Amino acid sequence: CVCAIVCVCVVVAGVVCSFAQVDGRELVLTQIVFRHGDRSSIYPLPQDEDSVDADWPFGLGQLTQHGRLNHFHLGRYFRNRYQSFLGEYHHSKISVRSTDVDRTLESAQMLMNGWFCGEDEVEVGGMCRPFPIHTVPENTDGLLAAFSQGVCERYSELKRDHVIRAEAKGDESAPEAYCEHLDSIIAPGTTTTATKTTTTTTTT
Hints:
Elements: E1 7-12, E2 30-35, H1 52-55, H2 65-86, E3 94-98, H3 102-116, H4 153-169, H5 176-186
Antiparallel strand pairs: 1-2, 1-3
């Protein structure tokens, strides 16, 4: 099945050349799938609800400056790796598809600028031009957001297993050191610790 996280897909179709000749074979197509860069928190901690705007000036669930740099440098890596294969940007050679989420769209844009903007055109983490990034609404995205459509049996199977494991862990006592660490974050100065915890993680 396809990627089951919020992500971006880049399809590179270049001119056949001597870039990747191995045992007489040549590279003619590359597909790259990656996740978005570092983001801000999706939900604020209870004691931080009044300081969200100050803590996360770009908003919750948004790409951070570090996340932008992540993908700019990833683009630089691909520039070095595929330069002789692909050359400069042309819409007939490369197509970029992203899930319809701010942080993935911005990640794709930063990667493309790192990939196709020359060092004399842009500063690190900057943009020399906008690049076409294709997307569709999540409720109709059967490629990168297939997990939300119920069409990926393998994803559904993994999700069921995850829920079962999470529920089982809910009956276990959480490590004391972990509880104390949470107390220090959520309620500084208190000594109360939890004896049981249930954690369900959703990857986005």
